[in-house]
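testing teh design pipeline on a random one, pls ignore if ur not involved
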Protein backbone atom coordinates (compact mmCIF):
# COMPACT_ATOMS: atom_id res chain seq x y z
CA UNK A 1 0.00 0.00 0.00
CA UNK A 2 1.39 3.39 -1.01
CA UNK A 3 -0.23 6.16 1.07
CA UNK A 4 0.40 8.62 -1.79
CA UNK A 5 -2.14 6.74 -3.95
CA UNK A 6 -5.02 7.18 -1.51
CA UNK A 7 -7.44 10.10 -1.85
CA UNK A 8 -8.38 11.69 1.45
CA UNK A 9 -11.45 13.84 2.02
CA UNK A 10 -11.39 16.16 5.01
CA UNK A 11 -14.14 15.17 7.46
CA UNK A 12 -13.47 17.13 10.68
CA UNK A 13 -11.20 20.16 10.38
CA UNK A 14 -8.25 20.99 12.62
CA UNK A 15 -10.12 24.09 13.90
CA UNK A 16 -13.21 22.07 14.86
CA UNK A 17 -11.08 19.46 16.62
CA UNK A 18 -9.11 22.06 18.60
CA UNK A 19 -12.31 23.90 19.60
CA UNK A 20 -13.79 20.65 20.90
CA UNK A 21 -10.59 19.66 22.72
CA UNK A 22 -10.60 23.03 24.51
CA UNK A 23 -14.27 22.57 25.47
CA UNK A 24 -13.73 19.06 26.91
CA UNK A 25 -10.58 20.27 28.70
CA UNK A 26 -12.55 23.06 30.38
CA UNK A 27 -15.26 20.61 31.49
CA UNK A 28 -12.64 18.22 32.91
CA UNK A 29 -10.88 21.11 34.67
CA UNK A 30 -14.18 22.09 36.33
CA UNK A 31 -14.87 18.48 37.33
CA UNK A 32 -11.43 17.74 38.78
CA UNK A 33 -10.29 21.16 40.06
CA UNK A 34 -8.04 20.67 43.11
CA UNK A 35 -7.99 16.87 42.79
CA UNK A 36 -5.17 14.56 41.81
CA UNK A 37 -5.84 12.92 38.50
CA UNK A 38 -4.08 10.36 36.32
CA UNK A 39 -4.78 10.72 32.60
CA UNK A 40 -4.45 7.44 30.69
CA UNK A 41 -3.54 7.64 26.99
CA UNK A 42 -4.74 4.67 24.96
CA UNK A 43 -2.02 3.92 22.42
CA UNK A 44 -1.50 4.30 19.70
CA UNK A 45 -4.52 6.11 18.30
CA UNK A 46 -5.21 8.68 21.03
CA UNK A 47 -1.68 10.10 21.37
CA UNK A 48 -2.44 13.40 19.58
CA UNK A 49 -5.87 13.93 21.14
CA UNK A 50 -4.40 13.06 24.54
CA UNK A 51 -1.44 15.42 24.25
CA UNK A 52 -3.69 18.31 23.18
CA UNK A 53 -6.32 17.48 25.81
CA UNK A 54 -4.01 17.26 28.84
CA UNK A 55 -2.69 20.74 28.01
CA UNK A 56 -6.25 22.02 28.37
CA UNK A 57 -6.79 20.39 31.78
CA UNK A 58 -5.80 22.84 34.45
CA UNK A 59 -5.23 20.70 37.55
CA UNK A 60 -2.48 18.38 38.85
CA UNK A 61 -2.24 15.39 36.56
CA UNK A 62 0.12 12.51 36.02
CA UNK A 63 0.34 10.63 32.73
CA UNK A 64 0.07 6.91 32.03
CA UNK A 65 0.01 4.92 28.79
CA UNK A 66 -2.03 1.82 27.96
CA UNK A 67 -1.26 0.10 24.67
CA UNK A 68 -3.94 -2.01 22.99
CA UNK A 69 -4.54 -3.28 19.50
CA UNK A 70 -7.80 -4.54 18.02
CA UNK A 71 -7.68 -3.70 14.29
CA UNK A 72 -4.35 -5.40 13.50
CA UNK A 73 -3.81 -3.01 10.54
CA UNK A 74 -7.15 -3.44 8.71
CA UNK A 75 -10.38 -1.43 8.66
CA UNK A 76 -12.62 -3.53 10.87
CA UNK A 77 -12.24 -4.53 14.50
CA UNK A 78 -10.99 -8.08 15.10
CA UNK A 79 -13.18 -8.22 18.21
CA UNK A 80 -10.18 -9.33 20.22
CA UNK A 81 -8.30 -6.80 22.37
CA UNK A 82 -4.57 -7.43 22.67
CA UNK A 83 -2.59 -5.54 25.35
CA UNK A 84 0.70 -4.27 23.90
CA UNK A 85 1.72 -2.09 26.88
CA UNK A 86 0.29 -2.15 30.40
CA UNK A 87 0.13 0.83 32.79
CA UNK A 88 3.51 1.42 34.41
CA UNK A 89 2.13 2.52 37.82
CA UNK A 90 -0.77 1.55 40.08
CA UNK A 91 -3.90 3.74 39.89
CA UNK A 92 -5.44 2.58 43.17
CA UNK A 93 -7.29 5.42 44.93
CA UNK A 94 -6.79 7.82 42.01
CA UNK A 95 -9.21 9.61 39.71
CA UNK A 96 -8.57 8.15 36.26
CA UNK A 97 -9.38 9.92 33.00
CA UNK A 98 -9.32 7.29 30.26
CA UNK A 99 -8.67 8.92 26.87
CA UNK A 100 -9.59 7.02 23.66
CA UNK A 101 -9.46 8.14 20.04
CA UNK A 102 -12.60 6.38 18.80
CA UNK A 103 -15.29 4.04 20.10
CA UNK A 104 -16.49 1.73 17.34
CA UNK A 105 -17.89 -1.61 18.61
CA UNK A 106 -17.20 -0.49 22.19
CA UNK A 107 -15.22 -3.66 22.95
CA UNK A 108 -11.91 -1.87 23.52
CA UNK A 109 -13.34 0.82 25.82
CA UNK A 110 -15.25 -1.81 27.80
CA UNK A 111 -12.11 -3.91 28.13
CA UNK A 112 -10.01 -0.92 29.25
CA UNK A 113 -12.61 0.30 31.73
CA UNK A 114 -12.98 -3.16 33.30
CA UNK A 115 -9.21 -3.54 33.48
CA UNK A 116 -8.76 -0.16 35.19
CA UNK A 117 -11.71 -0.69 37.56
CA UNK A 118 -10.13 -3.95 38.74
CA UNK A 119 -7.19 -1.84 40.03
CA UNK A 120 -9.49 -0.01 42.49
CA UNK A 121 -9.26 3.63 41.34
CA UNK A 122 -11.29 6.34 43.13
CA UNK A 123 -13.19 6.93 39.86
CA UNK A 124 -12.95 6.32 36.10
CA UNK A 125 -14.05 8.98 33.61
CA UNK A 126 -14.20 7.92 29.96
CA UNK A 127 -13.39 10.36 27.16
CA UNK A 128 -13.36 9.69 23.43
CA UNK A 129 -12.79 12.09 20.56
CA UNK A 130 -15.03 10.09 18.19
CA UNK A 131 -17.92 7.68 18.60
CA UNK A 132 -19.69 5.60 15.95
CA UNK A 133 -23.09 4.95 17.63
CA UNK A 134 -24.30 2.70 14.77
CA UNK A 135 -21.33 0.34 15.20
CA UNK A 136 -21.76 -0.33 18.95
CA UNK A 137 -21.91 -4.04 19.78
CA UNK A 138 -21.74 -3.83 23.57
CA UNK A 139 -23.22 -1.18 25.89
CA UNK A 140 -20.54 1.39 26.59
CA UNK A 141 -21.04 4.35 28.92
CA UNK A 142 -19.04 7.35 27.70
CA UNK A 143 -18.74 10.46 29.87
CA UNK A 144 -17.34 12.85 27.24
CA UNK A 145 -17.66 12.45 23.46
CA UNK A 146 -16.10 14.91 21.00
CA UNK A 147 -18.02 13.99 17.84
CA UNK A 148 -20.51 11.28 16.92
CA UNK A 149 -19.81 10.09 13.37
CA UNK A 150 -21.34 7.70 10.85
CA UNK A 151 -20.13 4.13 10.56
CA UNK A 152 -17.27 4.85 8.15
CA UNK A 153 -13.52 4.38 8.48
CA UNK A 154 -11.61 7.55 9.30
CA UNK A 155 -7.92 8.44 9.55
CA UNK A 156 -5.83 11.32 10.85
CA UNK A 157 -5.17 13.06 14.16
CA UNK A 158 -3.70 9.84 15.60
CA UNK A 159 -5.87 7.39 13.66
CA UNK A 160 -4.14 5.24 11.03
CA UNK A 161 -4.68 3.12 7.98
CA UNK A 162 -1.96 0.46 7.84
CA UNK A 163 0.20 2.64 10.07
CA UNK A 164 -0.08 5.82 7.96
CA UNK A 165 -1.89 9.16 8.35
CA UNK A 166 -1.58 9.44 12.14
CA UNK A 167 0.26 12.76 11.64
CA UNK A 168 -2.60 14.55 9.84
CA UNK A 169 -3.84 17.47 11.96
CA UNK A 170 -7.45 16.79 10.86
CA UNK A 171 -9.76 13.76 10.49
CA UNK A 172 -10.34 12.43 6.96
CA UNK A 173 -12.16 9.68 5.10
CA UNK A 174 -10.27 7.50 2.63
CA UNK A 175 -12.00 7.62 -0.79
CA UNK A 176 -10.23 4.69 -2.51
CA UNK A 177 -9.03 1.88 -0.24
CA UNK A 178 -6.34 -0.43 -1.65
P1 LIG B 1 -13.69 -0.91 19.15
O1 LIG B 1 -13.11 -1.88 20.10
O2 LIG B 1 -14.59 0.13 19.76
O3 LIG B 1 -14.41 -1.65 18.01
O4 LIG B 1 -12.52 -0.22 18.39
C1 LIG B 1 -11.75 0.74 18.95
C2 LIG B 1 -10.43 0.83 18.23
O5 LIG B 1 -10.53 0.49 16.85
C3 LIG B 1 -9.97 2.27 18.25
O6 LIG B 1 -9.19 2.55 19.37
C4 LIG B 1 -9.21 2.38 16.93
O7 LIG B 1 -7.87 2.01 17.13
C5 LIG B 1 -9.86 1.40 16.02
N1 LIG B 1 -10.84 2.06 15.13
C6 LIG B 1 -12.20 2.01 15.21
N2 LIG B 1 -12.78 2.73 14.22
C7 LIG B 1 -11.75 3.24 13.49
C8 LIG B 1 -11.69 4.10 12.33
O8 LIG B 1 -12.69 4.54 11.74
N3 LIG B 1 -10.45 4.41 11.90
C9 LIG B 1 -9.30 3.96 12.49
N4 LIG B 1 -8.16 4.35 11.96
N5 LIG B 1 -9.32 3.17 13.58
C10 LIG B 1 -10.54 2.81 14.07
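output:
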Amino acid sequence: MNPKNLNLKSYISEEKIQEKVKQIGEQLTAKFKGQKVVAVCVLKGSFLFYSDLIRQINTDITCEFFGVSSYHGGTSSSGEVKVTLDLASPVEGMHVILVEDIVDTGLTMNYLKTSIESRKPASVTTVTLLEKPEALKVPCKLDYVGFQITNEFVVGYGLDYQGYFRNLPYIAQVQNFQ
